[in-house]
Amino acid sequence: MFVFRGHWAHAHDVEQDHFMALAAMYVEAEPRYRQVAWLRDWQAFWLDATGAQGNGCSDLRADEYLLDDARVAEFRAFLRDYEAWCTAVGPALDLAVGIGPDKLVAFTRKVDAVLVGDTSHPAVNASTP
After folding, report:
1. Which of 59, 74, 108, 109 registers the highest number of CB atoms within 10 A of its CB?
2. φ and ψ at 125, to 5 degrees?
3. What is the 3-state secondary structure (H, E, C) of the chain?
4. Tens of pLDDT, residues 96-113
5. What is the pTM of this model?
6. Helices 90-97/101-116 angle, 10° precision
7. Where does the pLDDT of residue 57 fall: very low under 50, low under 70, confident under 90, or very high at 90 and above?
8. By C-alpha distance, which of 15, 40, 29 is closest to 81?
9. Other residues' Cβ atoms within 10 Å of the Cβ of residue 117
10. Sign of CA dihedral 127, 2, 77, 48
11. Integer Cα distance of 19 and 22 in angstroms
């Protein structure tokens, strides 16, 4: 599941693994994001964690990297740019990893909804205290 602050959504391991691998690739490919130190640190975690976490235990560890609202806003911008990249290279991604851009984009939108606490998104839930 993807958890951030007071909200969560079910997120399959494969969704998180695809995100970590492909988002790490996107950080490397995009000069704007290569310059963001905390995102580079998170990218290193993604590369180490992809495929190495136990079944049902994948965790993007958003709370460890999104420490303030400025980082949340910057990461949300990153998600929008990543979505555009996934859409643009969609056929190649489908060939390379067997997943189309629609599923990759759906996952980033779920993550974004959790980040802002949007419980109108069907997958997002508020955490119980």
Report:
1. 108
2. -130, 150
3. CEEECCEEECCCHHHHHHHHHHHHHHHHHCHHHHCCHHHHHHHHHHHHHCCCCCCCCCCCCHHHHCCCHHHHHHHHHHHHHHHHHHHHCHHHHHHHHCCCHHHHHHHHHHHHHHHHCCCCCCCEEECCC
4. 888 889 999 999 999 999
5. 0.90
6. 100
7. low
8. 29
9. 14
10. positive
11. 5
What span, in angstroms and rounded, lies between the C-alpha atoms of 23 and 43?
Answer: 8
Query: Given strand 7-9, what is the order of strands in its sheet?
Result: 2-4, 7-9, 124-126
Give the span between the Cα atoms of 114 and 2, in whole angstroms.
8
Cβ atoms of 115 and 66 closer than 8 Å: yes
What's the chain's length in residues?
129
* Backbone φ and ψ of 11, nearest 5°: -145, 115
How far apart CA 98 and CA 94 sit, in angstroms, is 4
Both tokens assigned to 110? 């779920």
Query: Phi-psi bin for 51: left (phi > 0), alpha (psi -120 to 50), beta?
Result: left
Amino acid identity of 109?
A: R
